[in-house]
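queue> pop job 88
queue> type: inverse folding (structure -> sequence)
queue> payload:
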């Protein structure tokens, strides 16, 4: 059973997330709170596997809460809820311990996929979020092109193809269709290239692809 905490200052949003989680037999909602400070305190007191955090909350926002959770409870996986217009915050959250990013208007099943994926130690990033973030980080202090190209040279030809498509914000299913591979095979390639590049999730890989001039 995956034990989930919801932190959002909008009661209606919490109710909607709660209803979605309630449709899954393998997920249990253990707490719902209205701000990041309550989220951190609850995690200190109760066993939580996955925390679903809104980026914008009073007292302690989602970014700060993710940093604290990463410090005090590194086993807790964080899924961040965001909206278009908060792309810069998503980029910041990459280094704050968040493993998943969802738009607030995502389909209900996407939330369930995200919770399960991060609980299994994977990153889950909505393809729309990936594409949006990659598109706005052209001059955000990422490694210079020469360094990015040097890193990409560690990869095999097929891994480079997968990386380029990650840079376009494609999902594993889309990449599989494009390269005539199964989703499971794509997942293996993604895991392998992340390990070779020393990256933790597919958004970082997508940004590297953009820096290397591969995701035009």
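queue> result:
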């Amino acid at each position: 059973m995956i034990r989930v905490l919801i932190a959002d200052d909008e009661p209606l949003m919490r109710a909607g997330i709660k209803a979605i989680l309630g449709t899954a037999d393998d997920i249990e909602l253990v707490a719902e709170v209205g701000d990041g400070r309550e989220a951190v305190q609850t995690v200190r007191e109760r066993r939580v596997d996955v925390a679903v955090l809104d980026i914008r909350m009073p007292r302690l926002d989602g970014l700060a809460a993710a940093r604290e959770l990463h410090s005090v409870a590194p086993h807790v996986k964080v899924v961040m809820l965001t909206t278009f217009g908060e792309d810069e915050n998503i980029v910041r959250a990459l280094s704050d311990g968040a493993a998943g990013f969802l738009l607030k208007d995502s389909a209900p099943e996407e939330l369930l996929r995200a919770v399960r994926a991060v609980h299994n130690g994977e990153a889950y990033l909505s393809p729309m979020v990936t594409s949006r973030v990659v598109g706005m980080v052209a001059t955000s202090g990422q490694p210079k092109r020469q360094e990015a190209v040097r890193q990409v040279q560690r990869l095999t030809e097929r891994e480079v193809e997968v990386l380029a498509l990650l840079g376009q914000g494609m999902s594993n299913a889309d990449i599989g269709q494009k390269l005539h591979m199964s989703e499971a095979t794509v997942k293996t390639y993604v895991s392998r290239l992340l390990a070779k590049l020393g990256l933790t999730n597919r958004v970082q890989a997508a940004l590297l692809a953009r820096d290397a001039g591969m995701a035009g």
